[in-house]
UniProtKB/TrEMBL annotation:
Residues 216-245 are annotated as: Disordered. Residues 217-231 have a biased composition (Low complexity). Keywords: Coiled coil, Metal-binding, Zinc, Zinc-finger. This is CCHC-type domain-containing protein. GO terms for molecular function: nucleic acid binding; zinc ion binding. Residues 252-267 form the CCHC-type domain. The lineage of its organism: Eukaryota, Metazoa, Spiralia, Lophotrochozoa, Mollusca. SMART domains: ZnF_C2HC. Residues 160-187 form a coiled coil. InterPro entries: PNMA_C, Znf_CCHC, Znf_CCHC_sf. It comes from Dreissena polymorpha.
Length: 270
């Protein structure tokens, strides 16, 4: 407006067209005969900064460059805050020395160390900002022209956690099988051959040596090498579990019936 290119009506019309939301509704309620100065004052009262100068100065001196900020972004935040201080009458707009000192104070550590010489030699704020951009470009490592070739890596589907889960399931299955086997062994009923086997060996009788090979072919239950009833001769080996001679049904050679031997044959006459 100070340059005289556009009139106040044109500027006010452009301002009304540019505003959106609450600001546009606020000017609409002000009426048709609104002047440019009144419109600006109403917008300042409604949306202007209401913070005092002390709070703005405290925020201004504590501002720092963020890890994701480049020099342009950091300077824009700093200059916006400085503009609010100028509007509140805290300092003059031409006092760029304070702007330069606060800019240097809030730089990143690496950039601040490299920009110390430029801070002492360059007095103008805009030139100092340009020097900072140059230093920032030098710090950034250039990207390689070509990409490195890496060997193809086959990604396994089974991760470490999945393997642990499978091992845990396998362990649970084995425990279940062991419990089932124990239950079957406890509930198993002994067969006739098992009872006969245990009875024979409990009396110390062994098939070996219990039958004398005389001409009459008679059975000698009281004498022989296998008889251990008198605690004489060899000891009788009794295995812990049934062997083939105990599990199979014996056949009597006298009556040719299964389930007993000659010594226990009911048809045997002494």
């Amino acid at each position: 407006m100070s340059e005289g290119i556009f009139s106040e009506d044109q500027i006010l019309y452009g301002l009304r067209r540019a505003l959106r939301g609450k600001a546009s509704e606020h000017l609409r309620r002000a009426g048709v005969g609104l002047t440019l100065d009144v419109a600006v004052r109403k917008l300042e009262q409604e949306f202007g900064c209401i913070k005092n100068v002390d709070f703005l100065f405290q925020k201004f001196y504590s501002i720092e460059q963020k890890a994701s900020d480049d020099i342009s972004t950091y300077c824009a935040r700093l200059e916006d805050l400085y503009e609010l201080i100028v509007k509140q009458g805290g300092c003059s707009k031409d006092n760029t020395e304070i702007l330069k000192r606060v800019l240097y104070k809030g730089l990143k550590k690496e950039l601040k160390q490299m920009a110390g010489y430029k801070f002492d030699t360059v007095q103008d704020y805009d030139k100092f900002k340009m020097e900072l951009r140059i230093i920032e470009t030098e710090i950034k490592s250039p990207e390689p022209d070509h990409k490195k070739c890496h060997a193809a890596v086959k990604i396994e589907k089974n991760t470490y956690e999945e393997i642990l889960k499978k091992l845990s399931k396998t362990e649970e299955l084995l425990m279940t099988l062991n419990e089932r086997i124990d239950q079957l062994e406890q509930t198993k009923e002994p067969t006739d051959s098992d009872r006969q086997y245990d009875q024979e060996y409990s009396h110390g009788i062994c098939y070996r040596g219990g039958y004398r090979g005389n001409s009459g072919g008679r059975w000698n239950s009281g004498r022989g090498r296998g008889n251990n009833s008198g605690a004489r001769g060899r000891g009788v080996y009794k295995p812990h579990r049934p062997t083939g001679t105990g599990t199979m049904q014996p056949t009597c050679f006298r009556c040719n019936e299964k389930g007993h031997i000659v010594r226990n044959c009911p048809k045997l006459t002494i």
